[in-house]
Amino acid sequence: MIPDLIRKQIRQGEGIGTEFKLDVRNLESIAKAVCAFLNTSGGTVFCGVDDKGRIVGMDAAQDQVQQIHAYLLENVTPKALFTVNVDDEDGKAIMSIEVPEGKDHPYVFGGSVFVRESSQTRAADAVKLHEMVQSKSVAAERWERRPSMAMEESDLDHDEVRRTVKQAKESGRFAFDDDTDDIEVLKALAVYSAKGFTQAADVLFAKNPALRHPQTRVRVTRFASDKGGDAYLDDRQLQGPLVRLFEQAFEVLSQHVRWEARFKTGDVRRADRPEYPFEALREGLVNAFAHRDYSGFSGGVTVGIYPNRIEIWNSGHFPEGLQPADLRKNHPSLPTNPDIAHVFYLRGLMERIGRGGQLIINACRDHGLPAPKWVDRPTGVTLTIFGRDGGGAEAFTANPRQRELLAQLQAGDQIRPSEYHQRFAAAVTDRQARRDLVELEEAGFLLRIGKGAGTIYQRTDRT
């Protein structure tokens, strides 16, 4: 299936952050667009889409993913973070090359620097080049790129490097020139240079990064009540290289998720499923690792498991100009730690750069849960994923129209927007009636099925 958000982005046509290609035969043209997105504000190259935004599909799309990866990694410098995904619907496959704004520009392809202006890719002029170089010269080197002052080669976890190589090759997301030499692998990942190991190499590939970076530890706590406090049912302090640490944290989190026995309407067979969608928990935890601020010793990642909600906190912040509400729509991708995020991507833990928030929202909606909530405070960002029983209910107050609908629908009952407007919301505009349904969907009372004229809303079992 092609995600609705991608369809919407394609329908909006080519622009400063969107480029259409019929196929991938002209790799130079694709690389120029990727280079321009890196140097401007990010964007997506869609292959298998014509100039008018019609999805025409392309042949053997999945087979060409590794070729695209290898070509872009070899020919765009410096090395940058991007993702390549293939979506298929009704036999028509499209390839999406999603590119966040780079943090090391100017980026170069074929000896030239390209930028994006409106819907066009062009070579940067002398003024633009001067601006890029000047901004880079005054920008502080980001934490992950600074040299590690204490890591030595004896600290290197060679097993972790080997696992990275293996998973990158299996996924087809990276081709190493020399995958037998661990130092050469780290050079290819831009975490080792003439100055030695970077901070990113330390937290990703050292045996015990917490010796030098105590802020990398992760705390996972299960509380006895929704008010928290000191009544713990479980409390773990975890440490290790980041990917292994993520795996440990997710395993502990998964162990504390309850399973529900459910019976669908008209079906006598029981269907067991977790109280929370694992894909949402996984994505929320990955984002906390990839986007947090690693520079302060007081930072970190914590996971709080409460009876009716799960909170994932990290010591990072939303990029300037980006608000929590923007996660529901297409938005620029601005990863805080692109080198760290790149390794998580190569190891199959990140799929689409910049769409993690949308994945979490959709997973909660499909699970019949209220919409998740992000809060950005001076101390960091907290993601709350609400459970079925009361979590998040305080944030939603139904109006009389919505209350009447909920009173008449049983779990599994369905209603079309036009029927809701006619039966329950005749006194308001069609736009307001549809907004009523969207609010009920976001609060977890309705599940939207289909799109456009075929949209149907189904009552969940949330009370």
Report on this model:
This protein has 463 residues and is α+β, with helices and mostly antiparallel strands. It has four domains: 4-139, Methyltransferase, Cobalt-precorrin-4 Transmethylase, Domain 2 (2-Layer Sandwich); 145-211, no CATH class; 214-386, Heat Shock Protein 90; 396-459, Orthogonal Bundle (Arc Repressor Mutant, subunit A), CATH 1.10.10.10. The chain is 32% helix and 21% strand. It has helices at 4-11, 27-39, 65-75, 126-138, 158-171, 182-188, 199-205, 242-255, 278-291, 338-346, 356-366, 400-408, 417-423, 430-442; strands at residues 18-21, 43-47, 76-77, 83-89, 92-99, 108-109, 112-117, 120-123, 192-193, 196-197, 218-223, 232-238, 259-263, 270-274, 301-306, 309-314, 373-377, 380-386, 414-415, 446-449, 456-459. The strands form six sheets. Strands 12-11-15-16-18-17 form a six-stranded mixed sheet, covered by helices on one side. It has a four-stranded mixed sheet with strand order 1-2-5-4. A four-stranded antiparallel sheet has the order 3-6-7-8. Helix 9 packs antiparallel against helix 11 (356-366) and helix 13 (417-423) packs across helix 14. The longest helix has 14 residues, at 158-171. The radius of gyration is 24 Å and the shape is globular. The two termini are 31 Å apart. The model has no long low-confidence stretch (mean pLDDT 89).
